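Appendix B, record 7
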Amino acid sequence: MTLEDQALIETIRKKGIGVLPNVLSGDEVEAVRVEFDQAHLNLGKGPGTPGVRDSRGGEQLLAYPAIAALYSHPRIMGVISAMLNEPVPWAWQVKTNRYTPKHKGVRKHTDGFLGELSPPFTRQAMAVFLDDIGEDSGALTYVPGTHYLHFECSDEPERQAPTQEDVDAGDYVPTALKAGDVVFRVPEVWHAVIPIHRLRRYVTGSYNIRGEMSEVMVERVKQEVDRRSQIPIDRIPEQLRPHWLWEGK
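Structure tokens (predicted):
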């Protein structure tokens, strides 16, 4: 692992969000954009409706090679594996997201489960951006360090999970991104998206450990593992299979 990636992991652990720039070249970004737009047309989302967020998810995306390759990209997976201390992270969700302007943005929220504390660092999200975003359009905003408030802590046995009121009151800071950058986000960190005035597309995945998780995630994992048991394995790219199957083989 490079020194840059080691520093990134320290940042993600501390702040809850970190950016790895220029993971994809311009040509690679364009190849993913072409597949992304075609996938949304083929899968019933059309060319995009102003003011609407649309997304697609699941194994249907894996028919698009440039998109599918991102979910097992070696450098991305190296960061996720280190964050989770998990040799073969499990790909719980694979998705694409598109926001067609003008869009009001996304309210302040957490992808943790309000009312429940969880073991620390059991999930990790990544998003490969296909368009530039900044403080004038679509910036990801977040409150550094707030993921820790959702983690169980032996030093604070009486800790209570944050409420939506807590999340709304946070001091949010913006993160700018360029097409080809990858943002890594601990799901529990508080985050939001400012109003969007330019097309905002990204390919995203969420990964889990294979050990102790929150009660909510245990049930969700079980449901997804059961669902995937009905999917022919030859529909899953070979390089993704270790991350797709719960047993990792």
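Remarks on this record: The longest strand covers residues 90-99. The radius of gyration is 18 Å.
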